[in-house]
Write a structure and sequence with these properties.
The chain has seven helices and ten strands. It is an alpha/beta fold. The radius of gyration is 16 Å and the shape is globular. Strands 6-5-4-1-10 form a five-stranded parallel beta sheet. Strands 7-8-9 form a three-stranded parallel beta sheet, with no helix packed on it. A two-stranded parallel sheet has the order 2-3. α1 runs parallel beside α6. The relative contact order is 0.17.
């Protein structure tokens, strides 16, 4: 399985954080990615941060191609300008998409104290569960960073699957902890072919990532 992480698509509806523009792609790039993914049964799309483009741009294109994906919003940003709101989360679920948690805000989970960890790993999925109407028990690691303490906390929180873009994960990793490759604003057809082709996931992981 090749897991591909998308962030924003099209024109942002908010001011981006420093460096965040590097992981935004155009609608045209996204359409080319979907065309390629539709031909690969072992390709799986995920979306981080909960940008408004998840519902406004990505969702109708996924539905029209009969594709499913997982969406990992930041719980603390739901309803803010440029991010999905509770209605958008319901639209994702109603369309057959899965919703997981990217935490409450952008933080390095390796540096959380116990109170912060409860907010990021427990309060965030609880809120997303309430808003989406679907149990949230999968996680996408912010910036892909992890260590044994983070993984232990995730298991204690009841995580059923965790996605990371850590270099320590090879293409053969599977099951509970899943590797991903991150799209980048310079993504082109050659990059997509490299990721989806034979041995391409290792090549993709050697390129760009961000959580």
């Amino acid at each position: 399985m090749v897991n591909i992480a998308v962030h924003g698509v099209g024109r942002p509806e908010r001011a981006l954080d420093p460096g965040e523009d590097e992981r935004w792609i155009t609608v045209e790039q996204f359409d080319r990615l979907l065309e390629a993914v539709a031909d690969h049964e072992d390709a799986h799309l995920t979306f981080d941060d909960g940008n408004a483009s998840d519902v406004e741009v990505a969702l109708p294109r996924l539905v029209s191609r009969g594709l499913r994906a997982e969406f990992f919003p930041l719980a603390g940003r739901v309803g803010e300008r440029g991010y999905v709101d509770s209605d958008g989360l319901r639209q994702l679920v109603d369309a057959g998409m899965d919703v997981g948690s990217h935490g409450w805000e952008r933080r390095d989970w390796r540096r959380l104290d116990d109170r912060q960890a409860r907010r990021e790993l427990e309060a965030a999925p609880q809120l997303l569960t309430e808003l989406s109407g679907r149990a949230v028990c999968r996680y996408s690691l912010p910036s892909g960073r992890l260590d044994r303490r983070v993984l232990g906390r995730l298991r204690a929180a009841g995580a059923t699957r965790v996605y990371s873009s850590s270099r320590s994960l090879g293409s053969g990793s599977g099951g509970w902890l899943q590797p991903r490759v991150q799209v980048h604003r310079e993504m082109d057809s050659a990059w997509v072919d490299g990721v989806l082709g034979a041995g391409g996931f290792r090549r993709g992981l050697g390129g760009w990532w961000w959580g």
